[in-house]
Amino acid sequence: LKEARLKELRQEHERMKLQQRQARGDYFPGQKCSAKPGTSLPTDADFIAYPKAMKMLTEKLNATPEELATWIFLGPDTGGIAAYQNANELNPAPRFYFDCFMGEDYLSPLMACWFRQDDIDRFDPTDRYITGAALIERWSNQPGLRPEAFIRAKIAESRLLDIHPTFGGTRGTHDDDSFPPLESGLFLLAHVVGIEAEDFGADEEIDEPAAGSCHPVIAALIRQYFPVVRDADANDEWWKDKMGDANRYGLLECRVGEGKKGRSRSGGSIWRPDMIAGWLVDRHTNGKEGLPADAARKGLKQFPGCEDVAEQFFPEEE
Predict the structure, then answer these.
(1) ω into residue 92 within 30 of 0, thus cis?
(2) Exposed, middle or buried, 287 (CB in 10 Å: 0-12/13-18/19+)?
(3) Which of 102, 180, 230, 231 has a CA-to-CA distance to 20 between 20 and 30 Å?
(4) Are strands 84-85 and 113-116 parallel, antiparallel or unpaired?
(5) Do 280 and 258 meet the contact criterion of CB atoms below 8 Å apart?
(6) In angstroms, rounded to a whole number, what is the distance separating the alpha carbons of residues 246 and 285?
(7) Local structure of 114: helix, strand or coil
(8) Of 245, 239, 199, whose CA–CA distance to 219 is shortest?
(9) For 232, what's the count of Cα atoms within 13 Å in the CB-facing half-sphere?
(10) Close Cβ partners of 67 (under 8 Å, ≥ 6 residues apart)
(11) Residue 302, class by beta-carbon neighbours within 10 Å (0-12 exposed, 13-18 middle, 19+ buried)?
(12) pLDDT tens, 8-28?
């Protein structure tokens, strides 16, 4: 009750400050706010609303709303991004934070968020995430595996962390019905891939690169760093066609795990960039659409940990 009252007081305080700004005449709805002398405050022109920001992140990273919520929850100091409130009418715009009083639905509060244009343009996430529901579906094809029980076991082993933007965690960690269900949690994709390699034996199906540090990545990054077609939209379609029928195009060995169609909005299939690079060069050598060695080397260097592999596989000609 005290926490609820404190929240009401904070909201009332914000309303009072807004009324004071209106009374002073330095706030007008629909117009830019004037910064005080000697300050450099962002104006509403520097901000974009949630729909535009989400569209840009989807096109750039194949991101999901759930991932954006996680990045906001983490904040810019830990590989995430900052969100703001009322950026169209307040200067400076107050920072947005998730609150447990928002309930289990952490996506609805995003509808009121604003983002700095520069932040979205420069944003390069440290980590990618998938929902608990997507993870359950992803692991449901493993013979004899009960996905929910297995996920809880990995959480208990500290090999998975169930993140929830408003509650912090889920029932996967807290055996309490007052916490959100496991399906609504968010999981670090790198942890998921690591468990698949170690526990499912995925590492036996692929050859590790000599450097041992060129890790699997999501399909969106493959499309971004290996542009076979100049037009971005056409390039996406080209890759989706090839990846969607990996067996036909000889891409099965480049994919980690079995993969399923329609999973892209839940984190996407995982691919080996070093093997993809070799596949592209082989196609180019045989007169098919692909990439020459220098372009493959340049693209492969964009993936963290793949720099040495790029030089080893595709050395520059003297």
Answers:
(1) yes
(2) exposed
(3) 102
(4) antiparallel
(5) no
(6) 20
(7) strand
(8) 239
(9) 7
(10) 125, 128, 129, 186
(11) middle
(12) 676 666 656 555 554 544 433
